[in-house]
Automatic annotation (TrEMBL):
Single GO MF descriptor: ATP hydrolysis activity
Pfam name, any one: ABC_tran
Domain ABC transporter: 7-237
Presence of the UniProt keyword Protease in the record: no
InterPro entries per record: AAA+_ATPase (IPR003593), ABC_transporter-like_ATP-bd (IPR003439), ABC_transporter-like_CS (IPR017871), P-loop_NTPase (IPR027417)
SMART domains: AAA
Domain of life assignment: Bacteria
Alphabetical UniProt keywords: ATP-binding, Cell membrane, Membrane, Nucleotide-binding, Transport
Protein name in UniProt: ABC transporter ATP-binding protein
Organism: Pseudothauera rhizosphaerae
Family according to the record: Belongs to the ABC transporter superfamily.
Length: 295
């Protein structure tokens, strides 16, 4: 194994019964820390996440965590896995503390005193100690996401899988959620799947871009944007004027900001454009044959 500590995915494939090739040979090496997985709708992110969480099986390929073969012994991985899905279920009337205790019990925490201690530590870690006696059903969206992390952290997982976490959160809650994730990433592999480029840019040391079931780019946010240095050009196209073929079109007060890729200055009013991760994301998708509309 090239990377005994962390996650190593090789040649992972999955074709659904309806013929959709959701994973077309995914290779990925992820060291402990926060790692971002970016991709448009339908790219295969959830399929990859559910496969890593051993909730479904691939057709081919391998997954190793800390050198151990996950597909050969999924049960062993489950003990070291935390999975935070897009939605956590509704549990009317049950308090955060009680619900967490029940999940800890289900995860094999049979010693009552140890279980209670673990639950209190987790509640503190996600900043929900003060709300622990309140019904989970009354939690805000942000509190629910943090509660989901506490659930996923029962048993100190080595791999935490987080699927599309920040949709619908206000900026303060999103920040709090990110701080908890960064804290967990100090000692585990945290895989954050999202289509919010900004979250990955701010949080993740490295990232991969998934499109049509394949990794089409991989690196640090700075590496991915630096690869476009000197090749991006932009101009504001006034309203009413025809838009050029662009990798990104963004509404601005004076019209539309068009960003194009070209090895030399395209002329007209185009000026050199400093590449962001968002630009790198759109260029990678365009190279994979996905238009901005599809993305
Ligand atoms: N159970 C299934 N049966 C058939 N096709 C599926 C199934 N699950 C997903 N797909 C298809 O596989 C492809 C990848 O889906 P997946 O949900 O993994 O993508 P995603 O990147 O998570 O997208 P999103 O961001 O929209 O959740 C899509 O074309 C989807 O329609």
């Amino acid at each position: 194994m090239s990377n005994p500590s962390g996650l190593a995915i090789r040649g992972l494939t999955k074709t659904y019964g309806n013929g959709v090739k959701a994973l077309a040979g995914v290779d990925l090496t992820v060291a402990p820390g926060l790692y971002g997985l970016l991709g448009p709708n339908g790219a295969g992110k959830s399929t990859l996440m559910r496969t890593l969480a051993t909730l479904q099986t691939p057709d081919g390929g391998s997954i190793h965590l800390d050198g151990e073969d996950v597909l050969a012994a999924p049960q062993r991985l489950r003990a070291r896995l935390g999975y935070l899905p897009q939605q956590i279920g509704a549990y009317p009337g049950v308090s955060g503390r009680d619900l967490l205790e029940r999940f800890a019990w289900l995860k094999g925490r049979t010693d009552r005193a140890a279980r209670r201690t673990e639950v209190e530590v987790l509640l503190e870690r996600v900043n929900l100690s003060d709300a622990a006696g309140r019904a989970v059903a009354d939690y805000s969206g942000g509190m629910l996401r943090r509660f989901g992390i506490a659930m996923a952290l029962i048993g100190s997982p080595r791999l935490l899988i987080v699927d599309e976490p920040t949709a619908g959160l206000d900026p303060a809650e999103r920040n709090r959620f990110h701080r908890v994730l960064a804290d967990v990433a100090a000692e585990a592999v945290v895989l954050l799947s999202t289509h919010i480029v900004e979250d990955v840019e701010n949080l993740c040391g490295r990232l991969a871009i998934l499109a049509r079931g394949r990794i089409v780019a991989e690196g640090t946010p700075a590496e991915l944007s630096a690869a476009l240095e000197g090749r991006l050009w932009s101009r504001v196209v006034p309203r009413g004027e025809a838009l050029p073929e662009a990798v990104q079109l963004t509404a601005v007060p004076a019209g539309t900001l068009a960003v194009v890729v070209a090895d030399s200055a395209p002329g007209g009013d185009f000026a050199p454009h400093r590449a962001s991760l968002e630009d790198a994301y759109h260029v990678a998708l365009a190279a994979a044959g996905l238009s901005d509309e599809e993305a």
